[in-house]
Design a protein that fits this description.
The chain is mainly alpha-helical. It is built from five helices and no strands.
Length: about 120
């Protein structure tokens, strides 16, 4: 597990950015998403072969490291759920703020996994 900043309570330590470590982490924090992860992994590996490039696999690792970062941190996952619920609010200003909040959460999670 990697070194990380203190973000308060975390369900699990941040996993290493490897397929096996990410899968094991997801199995703990969001087991209902394992099929989604596997489908995206299969697609990334197929594109990597087709494109003769590791960039689809690298993107897959970053996407899932970010998703796990959100799921393993109750502070981020609560903010994410609230913002997601407000996306289609009847008040357009609340919807726009929710979109900004989602963007901020995704940025924060990505920055954390790149530390």
């Amino acid at each position: 597990m990697s070194t990380q900043a203190d973000h308060g309570h975390e369900l699990i330590p941040r996993p290493e950015p490897t397929p096996d470590a990410l899968r094991a982490a997801l199995a703990v924090v969001a087991p209902g998403r394992l099929d989604e992860m596997q489908a995206m992994k299969d697609e990334a590996f197929a594109k990597a072969v087709e494109w003769q490039s590791l960039s689809p696999v690298q993107s897959w690792v970053l996407i899932w490291a970010r998703e796990i970062e959100i799921a393993r941190r109750p502070d981020l996952s609560a903010r994410y759920a609230q913002a997601e619920n407000n996306l289609e609010h009847e008040d357009p200003a609340i919807g726009r703020e929710a979109l900004r909040e989602l963007s901020a959460i995704l940025d924060e999670a990505m920055k954390a996994v790149r530390e």
